[in-house]
């Protein structure tokens, strides 16, 4: 195992990788409850969705571990699952088996682009300062999600967002968890993040939530028997290929899935591997091709199993900050996902306020890359800052990358330095600009 995952070369150990894998799982376990709840509005069997979500995530994550040796976990993507459910199935009235067929086609295109090196060229076309900005933007995104999940930040009709009720027991416990995480990290306590998650979860058993219960709900049982995936497995259909009218309706959906999925994956890959120390100073990423093939195959796998598109998870950064550096971390996360099939009641008992401090801490770690961006050079700083701001404010990694690339391309043209920007980068920026302006038939 040490030789296969090259633990010594990556300056890590088996215990550290195990703790990191559990940390990643703890940060992303919410998907086991959230994904079925979203996709069930399409008429898909909710019980089967729980099983399919866990199985698909485990298989895709294990595939990433074995092919790329990166600490990068995969699961059905948030945002894409909402697009699948509410826009495609409910809004456009596409039956969910047909929508799964479109996900399959998207995965095949993904795989072709990965195998031919097109996706690696896209990564190469993103300037290094923008790669750093993507890492920082994802950091802000993760921290924002953590603060929102913990109730520290809430919506406001006048100011868009504001602070929550700090006297509320759940919010107070979340803030205490953030401080505890910071203290443990500063003191270099091994497994600081997973220790905080455990401590807050246990404390929540004894603290009232203000609604008649406790913050951590006691599970009715420790074990559960998973439901059969049969109602969803291999139920995809391709009726949209049978007529020109249906095909025309399917094309914009497939293109939207492709664009959002591709750049969400690329952004996450850059952000997480940068924190893990794999992204070189020249912006090159070793084994990028293998990682891209893995997530392409995972997209195809998700359609066969019966769920929306599987993507790389930004919560993987939690495992990286816990010390994870190799695919062993990812393999441990995959094992936890499989265990969740029988430990679902126990896993779902972990409250959002317990994982929120972990996400905030990870966001702080990822923001440290901003020190490497040459802020004294406005040509570099302007696109970078736009990217950093746009990712959390647009609530989309892909949109943040698009705005940053468009800004970088236009600044290069406007300052007479057109050749300093990659030609392929201009093409990607033009595609994003066309999509933002509504020139392409697919929407945001």
Description:
The chain is mainly alpha-helical. It folds into 2 domains: about 350 residues, no CATH class; about 60 residues, no CATH class. It is about 65% helix and about 5% strand. It is built from 18 helices and 4 strands. The strands form 2 sheets. Strands 1-4 form a two-stranded antiparallel ribbon. It has a two-stranded antiparallel ribbon with strand order 2-3. A hairpin with a 3-residue loop joins strand 2 and strand 3. The longest helix has about 35 residues. The protein is globular, with a radius of gyration of 21 Å.
List keywords for this structure.
3% strand, 2 domains, globular, mainly alpha, 444 residues, two-stranded antiparallel sheet, two-stranded antiparallel ribbon
List the helices and strands and how they pair.
Layout: H1 2-5, H2 14-28, H3 31-39, H4 46-68, E1 74-76, H5 80-91, H6 96-115, H7 118-125, H8 128-149, E2 153-156, E3 160-163, H9 169-186, H10 192-204, H11 244-276, H12 288-305, E4 310-312, H13 316-321, H14 327-348, H15 352-367, H16 378-393, H17 397-414, H18 423-436
Antiparallel strand pairs: 1-4, 2-3
Helix pairs in contact: 2-14, 3-4, 4-12, 4-14, 6-11, 6-12, 8-11, 8-15, 8-16, 8-17, 9-10, 9-15, 10-15, 11-17, 16-17, 17-18
Shape: globular
Q: Mean pLDDT, nearest integer? A: 85
Supply the helix-strand structural class.
mainly alpha
Number of strands: 4
Q: Please identify the oligomeric state.
A: single chain
Give a quick account of the main beta sheet: strands, pairing sense, barrel closure.
Answer: 2 strands, antiparallel
Q: Could you tell me the radius of gyration in angstroms?
A: 21 Å
Amino- and carboxy-terminal Cα gap: 44 Å
H/E element order: HHHHEHHHHEEHHHHEHHHHHH
Number of separate structural domains: 2
Low-pLDDT runs of 5+ residues are: none
Give the count of helical stretches: 18
> What percentage of the residues does DSSP assign to strands (E)?
under 5%
| Strand order in the sheet with the most strands | 1-4
Helicity range = 55-70%
């Amino acid at each position: 195992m040490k030789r296969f995952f090259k633990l010594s070369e990556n300056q890590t150990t088996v215990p550290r990788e195990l703790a990191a894998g559990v940390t990643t799982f703890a940060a992303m376990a919410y998907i086991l409850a959230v994904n079925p709840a979203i996709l069930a509005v399409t008429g898909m069997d909710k019980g089967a969705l729980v099983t399919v979500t866990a199985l698909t995530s485990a298989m895709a994550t294990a595939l990433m571990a074995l092919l790329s040796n990166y600490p990068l976990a995969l699961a059905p993507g948030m945002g894409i699952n909402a697009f699948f459910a509410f826009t495609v199935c409910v809004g456009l009235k596409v039956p969910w088996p047909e929508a799964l067929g479109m996900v399959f086609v998207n995965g095949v295109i993904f795989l072709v682009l990965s195998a031919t090196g097109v996706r690696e060229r896209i990564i190469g076309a993103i300037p290094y300062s923008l790669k750093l900005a993507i890492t920082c933007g994802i950091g802000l995104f993760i921290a924002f999600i953590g603060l929102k999940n913990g109730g520290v930040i809430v919506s406001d009709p006048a100011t868009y967002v504001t602070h929550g009720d700090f006297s509320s027991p759940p919010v107070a416990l979340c803030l205490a968890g953030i401080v505890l995480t910071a203290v443990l990290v500063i003191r270099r306590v091994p497994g600081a993040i997973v220790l905080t998650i455990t401590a807050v979860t246990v404390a929540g058993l004894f603290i009232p939530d203000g609604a008649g219960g406790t913050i951590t709900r006691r599970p009715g049982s420790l074990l559960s028997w998973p439901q059969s995936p049969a109602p969803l497995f291999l139920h995809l259909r391709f009726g949209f290929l049978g007529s020109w009218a249906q095909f025309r309706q399917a094309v914009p959906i497939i293109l939207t899935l492709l664009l959002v999925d591709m750049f969400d994956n690329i952004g996450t890959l850059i952000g997480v591997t940068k924190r893990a120390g794999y992204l070189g100073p020249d912006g090159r990423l070793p084994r990028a091709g293998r990682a891209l093939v893995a997530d392409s195959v995972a997209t195809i796998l998700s359609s066969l199993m019966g769920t929306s598109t599987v993507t790389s998870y930004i919560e993987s950064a939690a495992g990286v900050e816990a010390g994870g550096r190799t695919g062993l971390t990812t393999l441990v996360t995959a094992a936890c996902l499989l265990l969740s099939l029988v430990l679902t009641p126990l896993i779902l008992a972990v409250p959002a306020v317990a994982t929120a401090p972990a996400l905030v801490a990870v966001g702080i770690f990822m923001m440290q890359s901003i020190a490497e961006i040459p802020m004294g050079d406005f040509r570099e700083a302007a696109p970078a800052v736009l990217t950093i701001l746009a990712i959390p404010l647009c609530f989309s990694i892909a949109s943040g990358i698009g705005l940053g690339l468009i800004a970088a391309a236009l600044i290069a043209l406007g300052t007479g330095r057109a050749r300093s920007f990659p030609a392929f980068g201009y093409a990607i920026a033009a595609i994003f600009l066309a999509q933002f302006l509504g020139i392409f038939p697919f929407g945001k």
